Amino acid sequence: MKTRAFAISLAALFIVAGASADTLKLRSGQTVEGTFMGATTSQVKFMGPDGQYNVYAVASVEGIAFTLPPPPPPQVPKAIPSQVNVLAGTPIYVRMVDSLDTSRTHTGDLFTATLDSNLVANGVVVARKGTTVHGKVTKSENARRLTGKSDLQLVLSNIVINGTAYPISTSGFQQKGKSEGAQTAKKAAGGAGLGAAIGAISGDAGKGAAIGATAGLGLAMVKKGEPIRVPSETLLEFTLSVPTTLPVAK
Amino acid sequence: MQKLNRVNCALGLFTLTVVVCALPAYSQQATANPEMQQKVAALKQSLAENQQALHQYTWTEKMETIFKGETKSTKQWQCKYDPDGIVQKTALDSPQPPQRKRGVKGKVIEKKKGEMKDYMERVASLVKRYVPPEGSQMQASFQSGNGAMQPAADGVVTLVFHDYAKPGDTVSLKFDTAAKKIQGYDVSTYLDAPEEVVTLRVVFENLPDGTNYVAQSILDATAKQVQIRTTNSGYTKI
After folding, report:
1. CATH code: domain of residue A138
2. What is the CATH number of the domain that holds A25?
3. How confident is the model at residue A12 (pLDDT cuts 50, 70, 90)?
4. A93 lies in the same domain as A216
5. Is residue A247 part of a domain?
6. Portion 165-184 of B in contact with A at CB < 8 A
7. A98 and A221, same structural domain?
8. Which helix H or strand E contains A44, and what residues bound it?
9. Which residue among A204, A218, A232 sits closest to B126, beta carbon to beta carbon?
10. Chain A: residue whose CA lies nearest to B130
11. Which of A38, A165, B89, B120 could covalently link to A158 via disulfide, CB atoms 3.0 to 4.6 Å apart?
12. Is residue A130 part of a domain?
């Protein structure tokens, strides 16, 4: 019996009818239009066009022809918005193109960097890795003999998307000289406070790798009285401080 | 050096990407010329076929690190493409335990090594700005008047881009439009200051069946007198 039911099911699978409903074909030659509702090893349950359920013995059933289910509606490609709101707090990882040095860099100087990873908001890639960003030196103080501390503060000021520079506002990257250097670096490593200093190094610079590589490299090793250097290709993290609507890169 | 290795992997995919990426700039000139458009399309097709042909090979990659003219290390890998088109490398050398000197001298050496590693990782990061080349950057360079196409009589076209990734840098790409083969890719750039010159020279050669491949790449960090020379050889069909 089981074999028979299986055979029916199998036959049903292979019969494709062009009709608008399932068709139950009985051994007596009779055909019934309706909807196949299920089957057991002994019975086939079928709903007729009048909505009534009828049960047929498997032995009396020759086969069942199923109507192909209507094709699914064509998938409309998910529309990519032309603009996306990037939330405050979004980290922005950049790799420096220019190099900065408190002995030469002045407050107000501009610098260029590129995104080190895609800038993503709402699942949309707003700007791809390599996109140019510009920043500004908000404070550059070189160590003097008595104070013995250098101080360098940076923010990002705009991002170039589709050839146009869009203003952005970020929390600042800050690095201080020896007396506060170690602590600054530790905070940075934990991602605390202002923009974290992320060491120059390694990998394809995913966030984890970047943070893992942080302190102790280059930036944190500032001795008392020495200038702070942010060499070219250093990886820095900034955080968007104001929600910003940006166009999506083409 | 892992990062440099990644750069070399990128060079492995170079044959296709370099010109396909460069083609937008080339095709910009071609838009007005249907014949040139056809050439560009044929070139793309040829490069795609070339890349596919490379997947049938296994080869040996040798990377030499040269410091102040002296070879400091040599590493070798057996390479092949995996089904995803990524170069898989198997080290052919057994790893040697690091030799450490004790005392003050040892510390000085370790510090110097650390500084050099840091520097070379920055160099590798810099090189990644150029490998593989970005069509959009080439186009931008072209549009801002910093790009030039120098066709030669023998069908070899040289595309030269200035200010490609940094002010004052130069990227040049040479390919033979008749044979549809890349001949070379050169980068001249710098790290922190223009004096800290970093150059990359990639030389292409052909296998007996005509498949084009990266035969050698030479990365030169002149300020530190470090050269990374990578040679691909021993191509055999899998």
Report:
1. 2.40.128
2. 2.30.30.100
3. very low
4. yes
5. no
6. 165-166
7. yes
8. strand A43-47
9. A232
10. A130
11. A165
12. yes
In a domain? residue A77: no
| B116-162 pLDDT, tens digit each | 888 989 999 999 888 877 777 777 777 788 888 877 777 788 888 89
Which pLDDT tens digit goes with each residue over A39-81?
A: 887 888 888 877 788 888 888 888 888 776 666 777 766 677 7
For the question of whether the overall pTM of this predicted structure is more than 0.80, the answer is no
| Mutation site, B5, B9, B116, B118, interface A, largest A CB count within 10 A | B118
Q: Which chain A residues have a beta carbon less than 8 Å from that of B191?
A: 99, 231-233
What is the helix (H) or strand (E) element at residue B198, kind and residue range?
strand B197-206
Structure tokens of B219? 């990365």
ipTM: 0.72
Contact between A232 and B191 using a beta-carbon 8 Å cutoff: yes
By residue range, what is the domain housing residue A29? 2-67
Query: Do A99 and A230 form a contact (C-beta atoms < 8 A)?
Result: yes
The lowest-confidence range among A163-177, A208-222, B33-47 is A208-222
Q: Which of chain B's residues have a Cβ under 8 Å away from the Cβ of A110?
A: none
Closest by CA position to A68, among listed A12, A31, A18: A18
Same-domain pairing of A93 and A145: yes
Contact B237, B221 (CB under 8 A): no
Residues A96 and A214 in one domain: yes
Q: Give the pair of three-digit tokens for residue B149.
A: 């196409």
